[in-house]
Amino acid sequence: MTPLPPIPDGWTWAPLGEIADVVGGVTKDTKKQSDPKLPLVPYLRVANVQRGRIDVTSVAEIRVPEATVRRLQLQPGDVLLNEGGDRDKLGRGWVWEGQIPNCIHQNHVFRARIRNKILHPKLLAWFTNECAKGWFEKHGKQTTNLASISLSMIKQLPVPIPPVAEQKRLLNLLEDHLSRLDSVLATCAVTTLRLARLRQAELNAKFGLTDDSIALGDLLVGIQAGRSVGGSAPPAGENEWGIVKVSAMTWGEFRPQENKAIPESLVNPNFEIMPGDLLVSRANTSEYVGAPVLVGETRRRLLLSDKSLRLMPRNDVDPEWLWRALQAPSARRQISAAATGTKDSMRNISQKLLMGIRLPRVEPDAQRWLAKAYAERDSELKRIERAAKAGALRVEALRRAVLNAAYSGALNDKIEELAGV
To answer: What is the separation of C-alpha 46 from the centre of its chain, rounded to a whole number of angstroms?
Structure first.
């Protein structure tokens, strides 16, 4: 058994199952959902149980026997913990505050109801969300797609129990420190959102559709489609050939590492990707189908796939201007409307429909000027984005430091002393 970390004098360790009633939730019975005699009640799923909050913006309902409602009905102060999903979601959760009457929980969410007020629920939730992450990763089980942890195992989670007076002190300090950190984190999130809106406004102003428009096909000398190579494989090594995946063209920049290795016998060098290529994702989610990327410096021996298209602009068309014009909201709306497919998770756009997308008619000199002006603005926006991201990472590091200090007995009222993390 792994030795437990040291805790201050007067604290004790106790298994979760000894200090709380821990139960699993309801498993959905499809047959019962059509029985009107059974009560219809709200129930929480994994998506509702977030790290540090309960999200009740979208709560499903389920029909279950009245005895099940009585057994699983949540009470204010219950700590909810996820038992399944991605590995980093194990143990994720927060305290139920009675937001919805008669609410229960599904089988992938555990409920811990602390006995005799031996520990404040928030102190348990903060501990499981941060300090116990390693324990959950170690004791969880991983299948092909999902991780899980059993009820019997989660009852064995060792929990530190401070004296009552220390619990009150910690609760006050943590609520103060974490609320300030949350405020900074919210500012970083708002900044990132505003930057995204600014970028869209810049794209629309410089590359949006005007009254004088032209079809994409009239700006090209051709489109080249890649070929399909079935199966899955790890990324290609330095001297291997690879074929790009859809994710290489999804995020606004070309990602050459998103590829899979293929045998040299299947290679056609005519489909090799080169610096300066303008690529488009032919198939993707509804949000990213038709997403364009302009290839910069890239590795050699990388091929187009059947889900990627290489656009070949005319000599008088600036590739960078065309890349940005295809990113503009007016072009994105046309591409999304033209894409076909029954599921949003995988839409397709044909070469014919793509060539029909209307773009502003702009003279070559103006194309180059607009592309340069946008690049300068985009560089400025990226600098601010990096600062916001760095700030958010700093806040998360401080949060970890604050919580680890709390459960080691080292937390005081000066968060500045933890700023060296």
So the answer is: 15
Look up the pTM and report it.
Answer: 0.78
Could you read off the pLDDT of 357-377 as tens digits, one per residue? 999 999 999 999 999 999 999
Q: Which residues touch 251 (CB under 8 Å, ≥6 apart)?
A: none
Question: Among 238-247, 279-288, 412-421, where is mean pLDDT lowest?
Answer: 412-421
Which residue, 168, 126, 192, 182, is CA-closest to 415?
182
Distance CA 147, CA 241 (A): 33
Closest alpha carbon to 282 in 258, 310, 262, 259: 310
Burial 253-270 (b: 16+ CB within 10 A, else e): ebbbebbbebeeeebeee
Written as six digits, the tokens of 38 are 């059974």
Does residue 421 carry a pLDDT above 50? no
> DSSP states of 49-96 as a string?
EETTEE--SS-EEEE--HHHHHHH---TTPEEEE-EESGGGTT-EEE-
E strand or H helix at 310 = strand 308-313
Q: Coil, strand or helix: which one is 97?
A: coil
